[in-house]
Every structure is written in C-alpha cells, then in structure tokens.
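Field reference: sequence -> structure
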Amino acid sequence: MTARHALIVRGGWEGHHPVEATDLFVPFLRDNGFDVRIESDPEVYTDRDAMDAVDLVVQSVTMSQASREAVAGLRAAVEQGTGLAGWHGGIADSYRDSSDYLQLVGGQFATHPSRHPDERPGDERDNFVDHTIEVTDAGRASSIMAGIDGFALRTEQYWVLTDDLNDVLATTTHPVQPYHPWHRPITSPAVWTRAWGRGRVFVATPGHDVEVLKDDNVRTIIERGMLWASRTESE
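Structure field:
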C-alpha cells in the first residue's frame, strides 16, 4: 500500500505553540499511513513538484506572512485535490493581508471576547470564557462529528467572519454582555468544511493550546477532519 503524504507547515506567533500542537498529531498521521514532512516556512507552497505529491496540508501558522506566490501555490494544490486542515489561529488567523488565502479557507478570526473586567488576571486567561460548541444538523450528518453532541470548553471562543460556501458542522454563540458593545447574541462557526475545486478544507476554531487540543471531543474532531480533508484515492 502506497503511503500518503502529509505536509505540516508550522510557525508564526508562538502563543499558539505551533510545534507542540502539531507534534501532538504526528503519531496519529503516521499511524494512518502518512509520511510526514514538517516545514517552518509557507514558501514550501511555491514548490509545485512537492505540492503535487502532498495529500494533506496541516497548517499551524498564526498571523505571519506568506508571499503571493506561496498563497497561489497553496490554492492551486487544494484546487487539484490536496487537502487542507487546521485549527484555531493556525489556519483561521493566518496571512491577514491575503484576501486570496481568506477566500480559500472561508473564515477569518475577528476577536475572542473577554471575561468580565473584574475577572481578568492580566494574561491570556483574560479571554478564556466558558462556552458551548453546538453541533448543527449538517454536523450530525457528518462522519467528522459522529457521536459527538454539544460540549463545553473554557478557552478562547473565536468570533469568525465567514461566508456561505462553508458547510458548518458546529457553532458557538457569543452572548450579550454589558461590558461588550454588541446588542444581540452572535453565532459563529466553530467547525466547518469547504469544497475548493477537487480539494477539501477542514477548520476547527478550538485549539488555543495543547490542553484544549487534548480534549477528547476537540482531538477527535481534528483527527477525523484531517482524514476527511486528505486527498482520496479516486482523485
């Protein structure tokens, strides 16, 4: 049986622990028949020969920049059948200056609402809030979410700007709070898939740190999402 090829691209803002986070999933990928290559620079996307051989890109690059050529290379690879998967800011808050990347992924981090001012310790926990991930009807019909009901997390809750091309498998709702300026609850996608040419894109917004990624529900969703996104034998 020919091995599949996974490319992990990791880097950017260190607050999302790109090395530790992606290392968590390397054994799973190898156990599922992937040869795993790891790169720290998105310029690998410009290597057409390398990208033609990749079945799955797992990206964990928060913020940072990618050249126009790198984004074009990633888009072309996905359009030809390479899968793209990731979580949290590593995929939904990458390359903020590239509208072409945003269109490919289908969602951009906007903010993560904070706790009450009196409850903020003055570090990253300022934005750790209790919230629920709710499975949608599309999610209940998806193998990615099979057997998973709504579940609670205490971590960053992403507010995402998105479009209607996504198949939203789970959502999360930001409530109205007197210390925030919005006036009605806002529901954001928390897990989605997206068809792009012959390729598939998978995004999960939970995953701020390794502790969140080790949550049974979060880890299961991401593992299934990576396999779902990977190029299929018929492509």
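Note: The CA atoms of residues 83 and 229 lie 5 Å apart.
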